[in-house]
């Protein structure tokens, strides 16, 4: 009898995992998926209205300055092309800047998700977890937090960190190229 109870409990737990996954999936279908679809449609509409050549021209303009190259260019790339296509904006850069741009673009995947979830929906669970924790804190009265304000600060800090990482990666790329006698 003990073995039968144990097997029954194991089977209920096994199917319970899939039931919980199904509930989460339904939550996404009725919650975030419509938002992501509308955001993607809006972004592609903006690109079509503005013109792809103008978006590319703006990317070329941002690639000329070290500050905009590692802040605004990854932001523009991630917003318009989303992850993983955003990395293709590296085509507008000289070879010596490509590793640092990639580092900056990859690092922006999480900070941008709070304000623009269409940019990196694969990592949305991280932001939703943070937002759920902050919401619980706010509801308990522990701290008055604003989720949109948190998302904005997260993006601003992310852009600042991207700038630092871009500059550092660019310097490391120069150093390694020099050491290996690679002309950049």
Characteristics:
PTS system glucitol/sorbitol-specific EIIC component; PTS_IID_sorb; 8 helices; membrane; 184 residues; transmembrane; transmembrane helix; mainly alpha
Question: How would you characterize this protein structure?
Answer:
This protein has helices at about 1-30, 30-50, 50-60, 65-70, 70-80, 100-105, 125-140, 145-180. Helix 5 (about 70-80) packs across helix 6 and helix 6 (about 100-105) runs antiparallel to helix 8. The termini are far apart. The model has no long low-confidence stretch (mean pLDDT about 85). It is mostly helical and about 180 residues long. InterPro entries: PTS_IID_sorb. Keywords: Membrane, Transmembrane, Transmembrane helix. One of its GO terms (biological process) is phosphoenolpyruvate-dependent sugar phosphotransferase system.
Quaternary state of this entry equals: single chain
Strand content range: under 5%
Kindly state the number of beta strands: 0
Structural class: mainly alpha
Low-confidence parts: none
Shape: elongated
State the separation between the terminal residues, measured CA to CA: 73 Å
Number of helices: 8
Order of helices and strands: HHHHHHHH
Helix content: over 70%
- The chain-level mean pLDDT equals 84
Query: Radius of gyration from the CA trace?
Result: 22 Å
Q: Biggest sheet, open or closed, and with what strands and sense?
A: none
